[in-house]
Write a structure and sequence with these properties.
The protein is α/β, with parallel strands linked by helices. It has a single domain, classed as TIM Barrel, CATH 3.20.20. Helices cover about 35% and strands about 15% of the residues. The protein contains 8 helices and 6 strands; from the N terminus they run αβαβαααβαααβββ. The strands form 2 sheets. The protein has a 3-stranded parallel sheet. β1, α2 and β2 form a beta-alpha-beta unit. α6 packs antiparallel against α7. The model has no long low-confidence stretch (mean pLDDT about 95).
Length: about 180
């Protein structure tokens, strides 16, 4: 219904550079993904649901459950995915979402790389909110908003990502948080 509403709105009022997104783009199928691609929609996903929605196969059945949280398929179809937590329903930590996305046990064909998961929470999230020129990556001219981690998520075992600690958070070039020594 949401895709139909967006299609109708764009047919009546065509515009470029829209960054409409579907929140909780959770249970999809190939046809919905094709329509999302044609509309250049952004999929806002909550990777930690992979862990907490342990009932997915029982409630959806194996055929539909295959399309629950299809992160790799979305990315493969050039649909931008942004990561979020859905806090307070899920833990707020992006690291737990990244861990869930890269270590999923069910539908492992939808597992994504650490780099893809990091992009969902950084560069892609900034793009979705029209802030890619000031946020989302560490570059000259952008806000100095960054997080210093205890370990590099791209070099440790994926299962260990959930144990990474935040050592420091910097907002606009100023230390906002520093872990006690």
């Amino acid at each position: 219904m949401t895709l139909t509403a967006i299609e109708k709105a764009l047919a009546k009022n065509p515009r470029k550079n829209l960054r409409h997104r579907i929140e909780h783009a959770s249970v999809l199928n190939e046809k919905l993904i094709d329509r999302m691609k044609k509309l250049s929609l952004i999929a806002s996903v909550q990777p930690h649901f992979i862990i907490s929605d342990f009932w997915t196969t029982d409630r959806l059945g194996p055929k539909r459950a295959r399309w629950a949280y299809p992160f790799k398929t979305l990315i493969g179809n050039e649909i931008m995915a942004t990561g979020s937590s859905d806090c307070p329903v899920e833990p707020i930590s992006p690291l737990l979402g990244i861990h869930a996305a890269v270590t999923r046990k069910e539908n492992q064909e939808e597992r994504i790389t650490v780099n893809e998961a990091l992009r969902m929470y950084t560069i892609n999230a900034a793009f979705a909110s029209f802030e890619e020129k000031v946020k989302g990556s560490i570059e000259v001219g952008k806000l100095a908003d960054l997080t210093v981690l205890s370990h590099n998520p791209e070099t440790i075992a994926p299962e260990e990502i959930k144990n990474i600690e935040v050592e420091m958070t910097i907002v606009d070039g100023k230390i906002a948080y520093m872990k006690a020594a």
